[in-house]
């Protein structure tokens, strides 16, 4: 009897999910450019690449602060987001031993970050930060934590020093 009830609930959910998908597709069609070539994300500009290189090399809160938009938002799920330039600069300048490499993720500037634990002889793949740069400043950083995200770029899990 319980199994039948579960199946009935699942069947009731399917039309609702399909309806949501249909509405979502219609919304995307209304807002997306008609020409598929216009749907591509823009390539990185030389200015964006410069911001990315500088961001990868920085370590002090003051240096990070110079690259951040006032309303910058850093997400690192499941932790709550870090919002605002001062808070973000302090967050980014924490005293960790990182090796950071500029990259591109879906035509967006990104950083591949490797972390070395105290006393370790190697760096472990740790996080991919995907950035949004607006007006020469970093407006958003979405962190994808986990070695598998870094390895998806064809990079090693570990860097030995």
Question: Can you offer a commentary on this structure?
Answer:
It is a single chain. This protein is an alpha+beta fold. It is 39% helix and 35% strand. It contains five helices and seven strands, in the order αααββαββββαβ. The chain has helices spanning 2-31, 46-57, 61-67, 85-92, 147-151, and strands at residues 68-76, 79-83, 97-105, 108-116, 122-134, 137-145, 158-160. The longest helix has 30 residues, at 2-31. 17% of the residues are buried.
Query: Roughly what is the average pLDDT, rounded to an integer?
Result: 88
What is the helix fraction of residues, given as a range? 25-40%
Radius of gyration, in angstroms, nearest whole number? 21 Å
Largest sheet: 7 strands, mixed
Structural class given helices, strands, pairing? Answer: alpha+beta
Give the topology string: H per helix, E per strand: HHHEEHEEEEHE
β-strand percent reads 35-45%
Number of strands: 7
Annotation field: number of helices: 5
Low-confidence stretches: none
From the N-terminal CA to the C-terminal CA, the straight-line distance is 62 Å
| Coarse shape | globular
């Amino acid at each position: 009897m319980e199994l039948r009830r579960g199946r009935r609930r699942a069947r009731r959910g399917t039309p609702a999910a399909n309806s949501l998908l249909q509405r979502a597709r219609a919304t995307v069609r209304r807002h997306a450019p008609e020409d598929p070539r216009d749907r591509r994300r823009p390539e990185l500009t030389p200015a964006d690449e410069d911001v990315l290189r500088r961001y990868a090399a920085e370590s002090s809160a003051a240096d990070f602060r110079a690259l951040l938009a006032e309303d910058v938002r850093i997400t690192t799920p499941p932790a709550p987001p870090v919002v605002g330039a001062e808070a973000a600069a302090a967050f980014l300048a924490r005293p960790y031993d990182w090796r950071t490499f500029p990259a591109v993720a879906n035509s967006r500037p990104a950083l591949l970050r490797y972390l070395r634990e105290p006393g370790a002889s190697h760096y472990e793949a740790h996080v991919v930060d995907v950035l949004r740069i607006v007006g020469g400043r970093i407006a958003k950083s979405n962190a994808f934590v986990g070695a598998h995200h870094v390895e998806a770029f064809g990079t090693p899990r570990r860097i030995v020093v």
